[in-house]
Amino acid sequence: MSAPTVQVETRGAVALVTLNRPDSGNALSLQMAMDLLAAAMTCARNTAVRAVVLSGAGRHFCFGGDLRAMASRDTSGEDYIRELTTYLHAAISQFSRMNAPVVAAVNGTAAGAGVGLVAMADLALCADSSRFNLAYTNAGLTPDAGTSFLLPRTLGLKRTMELLLLNRTLSAAEALDWGLVNEVVTDEQLLARALEMAERLAQGAGSAYGATKRLIAHSLGAFESHMVLEGETIAAHAVSPEGLEGISAFLEKRKPQYPGKGPR
Q1: Quick one: which of 66, 205, 240, 246 has the fewest CB in 10 Å?
Q2: Residue 223: its pLDDT value, please?
Q3: Distance in angstroms (rounded) separating the CA atoms of residues 241 and 256
Q4: Does the annotation count 187 as an active-site position?
Q5: Can you give the pLDDT at residue 111?
């Protein structure tokens, strides 16, 4: 039996949720999105869990969506991505609204939807070797995982558009300066520091934390309905001429040759 794509380990009052496809850079497949939702629901329902740490197995946090899996679906790719984002966005909603504070511990690279997982966390730490890249438009795709909703509110509009249109890579120091993460530590200290922070949170007023999280979520407006729009948009673009060319070029490690027009 294969290992789960998302592992949940409880350490006292802290749940360590680990993305577990290290050979694929923890790229999000449909199964992984389903497992992430199950992990989020497990944490939300377990009253003994008072804080959550989200990290990635192996060298990297999360490369974003699994483009190879998307490409292998051919004409059913639109339905595949719509289903994947439905589970992924439901998981993000669960993490955002549960009582337990969520601490992202970003090792290596966070790209695409991986950046969305960082943005949805209540607090985020990264290693000094970490890098962040949105990557969507490089592959002829559009944002998902709440990135087009959360990042303008976190970074500001112009910086968000710089990341989405120019696909600029942020270093750990830049991510701290821009407000994407709260703290940068050495690679060796990352998980221990995240667990230390989570353990401190676990000793706090859990009900007040949860109510505060939901007040912040309410202040942001229609987050869930926006993620539905994200899912529909990326699903449509994945099977458009731009999306098909962008994904193929990415997998073939070449520069894409986009057609003149794409979907509006």
Answers
A1: 205
A2: 82
A3: 11
A4: no
A5: 97
